[in-house]
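Sample entry as discussed:
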Amino acid sequence: MAAVVNIRRDVKDKFYRYKMPVLLTKIEGKGNGIKTVFPNMADVARALNRPASYPTKFFGCELGAQATFNDDTERYIVNGAHDQERMRELLDSFINKFVLCSSCKNPETELLVSRDDWITADCKACGHRGDVENKHKLCTFIVKNPPKKASKKGKKGAAGADSIAGQPGQVDGADGEDDDDQDELSRKINEGAQALLSEEQAAKLIAQREADEDWGEDTSAEAVARRMAALGVGASLLADEDDDEGDKYSAFAATVTSDMSNADIYTGAQDVSTKSYKVLVPLVPALFSDDIVAQLPTRLALLAKMTSNEKDQKALLGGFERFFASHPDLITPTVVGKVLLQLFEADIVAEDVLLHWSTHVSSKYAPKDVSKKVRKAADPFVEWLKTAESDSEEDE
C-alpha cells in the first residue's frame, strides 16, 4: 500500500488534514514501446476529487507524450520512461493549477465548465470561485470531458475533512458516481423515456448502445433498426442527432483542400463538432491522396490535436480504413506499415489501441473485406510491436 503524504507537499505539518497516496510509477515495455504506468493513479485522483484522466493527460501535455487511460481497468499510462520524482513534481504542478483554491489554497474545490467553455474552481472551504489556468492544453480536454456532477446524496469533496479523516486518500461517496458520463441516449431515458419503456427495456437499450461502440459490432442503419425493433422501441427515442448529422461531417470534409493550414482545418472541425471522433472518419480521406506516406508528416500536428482519448484514436484508424477503401492499390505492408508507424511514433495512437484494432475486423468504417486487407497488410508492423513488448517481458 502506498504511503500517504500531504496534498500540498510544501506543507510539512503532519496534522495537515488533506492527504493523498504517494504517486507510484512503473516502467513497462522496451524501445519504441516503453511507457510509464501509474498503478495507483485512481486512488490519488479520488483524494484530489478529480477524474484520474485529468492528471494523466496533464502529464502528457507537460512531457509532450501520448497519454492513455481506461477508467474501467484503472490503467493510466504516459508513453516514454519518466523518473518517479519528476512525475511527483508534475503532480504538484497539476494540484497547484487545477485543484487548490487560488484564495485559501485548500483543495476543497470543484471544477465548473461554463457554456462558453471557461473553467473555474469553486471552493467549498472559503466560497471563493476563481479561474484555473485556462490557457493550459489540459483545459481543452476538460471542456470535452467535463467532471461528473456530484450525486444528490450529499457527496462530499474528496479532499474534505469528512472524506479523509481516518482514511487518507479514500473518498466517501465515490460509489454514488456513475461509471461513465451519461450520453445523450441516457439523458433522454432519464428525462422522459420511462413513460414509454419499462426499467428492464431501458437497461437493455443502454447496454445495447454501449455495445454498439465495439469495433466488431455492425452499426449500419439496418442493424440499428433491427435492434430497436427487437426491443420494441420507436426510432424517435434513439434520435439523439439530426437526420442530416452525418452529412454535416461529410460536408465539412468536402471543403478541406490540400493547401489549407492545420489551424484552419482544426477550427473548422471544432465549429462542426467538439467531438473529434465524429469528424475524423470523413476528414482523414479528405486530407490525403496517393502520396499519403509523404503527406502524413505535415498533418501529424493536426491529428494529435484532434485525438485526446481512445475513442478519438479508434475513429482516426477508422478514417484511415476509409481512405484505403478508396485507394485499394495502397493496401500494402509498406504503405500501411509506414502510416501506422508514423502515428505510433508521434504518440497519436497508443500501442494498446493499435493491438486491439489489429484483431477486430469490422465493417463500421469500411467494407469488411477492406478492413481485413488493411489489417493483413499491418501484420508486419503489429508483429514488431508485439516483439518489442515480449522482449521487455522476457527481460523482466
